[in-house]
UniProtKB/TrEMBL annotation, chain A:
Listed name of the protein: Glutathione S-transferase
Domain GST N-terminal: 5-84
Family: Belongs to the GST superfamily. Tau family.
Molecular functions (GO terms): glutathione transferase activity
Species per Swiss-Prot/TrEMBL record: Miscanthus lutarioriparius
From TrEMBL, chain B:
Source organism (scientific name): Miscanthus lutarioriparius
Descriptive protein name: glutathione transferase
Keywords: Transferase
GO molecular function: glutathione transferase activity
Catalysis: reaction(s): RX + glutathione = an S-substituted glutathione + a halide anion + H(+)
Enzyme Commission designation: 2.5.1.18
UniProt cross-references to PANTHER family, sorted A to Z: GLUTATHIONE S-TRANSFERASE, GST, SUPERFAMILY, GST DOMAIN CONTAINING, GLUTATHIONE TRANSFERASE GST 23
GST N-terminal domain ranges (all copies): 4-83
Pfam family membership, one: GST_N
CDD domains linked: GST_C_Tau (cd03185), GST_N_Tau (cd03058)
Domain of life: Eukaryota
Amino acid sequence: MAGGDDLKLLGMWASPYVLRVKLALSLKGLSYEYVEEDLRDKSELLVKSNPVHKKVPVLIHNGKPVSESLIILQYIDEAFAGTGPSLLPADPYERAVARFWAAYIDDKMLPALNQSAMGKTEEERAEGKKQSLVTVETLEGALRDCGKGKPFFGGDSAGYVDVVLGGLLGWVRASDELHGVKPFDPERTPLLAAWSERFGALEAVEPVMPDVSRLVEFGKMLKARLAAPPAAGASN
Amino acid sequence: MAEKGVKVFGMWASPMVIRVEWALRLKGVEYEYVDEDLANKSTNLLRYNPVTKKVPVLVHDGKPIAESTIIVEYIDEAWKGGYSIMPADPYERAQARFWARFAEEKCNAALYPIFTATGEAQRKAVHEAQQCFKTLETVLEGKKFFGGDAVGYLDIVVWYVHWLPVTEEVIGTSVVTDKELPLMKALFDRFLAVDAVKMAWAQALKRRKRPRLHPNPTSPSLPPSPPLPSHKSQRSRLGALLPPARLCGEARTR
């Protein structure tokens, strides 16, 4: 690779989407400069790098910005194909399956989890809880059937789907204290519960995980603001 | 005996399904098309896509893939060599994926209210959609297609390139005009002239079954099954039959 790849990550410490990118960079062994953004006072660099959404994470590689966490993950995998382990499998079919579950996590599971915690009414939150259960159990099924007894979605080592789900781990851990809910309940979804422990303990993962007690404090503050207009949205 | 070959489970009018057919045709891949009645889904569809139960589903040698944008990338990777759908450069790929998501999430969301609104509310909705398209249009500057000289991933994903002329007839108002969106308008015409696109479109219309009575107060009395007319009149006939919101709600998948 020519002269020094300059990597800069614009992020926010509590964002699960930003965490995904940190996890991917860590797993690949890539060094980068991290810039913490105040989402209520976005930097000029952020606005210039992601003018369409103005959201984090943004990865800037040699001056060129890439936005949207799933897109950034795939970019890292492709632009740094020779460095560290691959995130996506080599086989086209397995790649399609991995992309499917990543999309499922973002499009079905995450919105349900958000709604169960942050829904404005009791009914909304109840509906969110119901959907969360369905989607989490479906994901448990995916780990069981596609995973085939392997420790990670990616097989013997962590891959794309592990990183996509892994971004949520901080909040998953905080959820019990915040909402009295264990999204990966060891009784209902034993594989996912075991996966959480295993993934969280990985050498490349443990150091980049956000502090859970800090997330709990932050979560309490967000809940208190529920009635008020939403704080500048974290991420993407 | 192992299942061989390529099957597409679809619904004739679905914009998401036709993306898959465009991709397969651009690659020159032969496939069998299975039309689904979305009110009465086949056991095969439910077997191949138990998670979302939606079309399109591509089945390649017995292995199913769902979600249209994921299927299109799969087609590009599984049939390497020949026509390239995704850009070669990782940064360009990231850009294509970014704009595809923008088109899917923001522009689609901006389009749907146009169908249900009327009068001033509709005018406002049209304006919002045009703003969205204007952002997307910046990606087209200096290019024949989003993909450059030839149709690529982003051209395939921007489905209203195919559907918008039809829906504009249904709703009685133009969204993509020469005045507001000259580059997009030019792209539509160019895109619709591509062989793979034309042929898939013609096939889709052939598959259209005799329409059931959907409540659609704006449609005139339903015509009998037409023979295959020329391109422009196809749009009018289709426009008369289309219940857009319900259609997209049923068939829509990423």
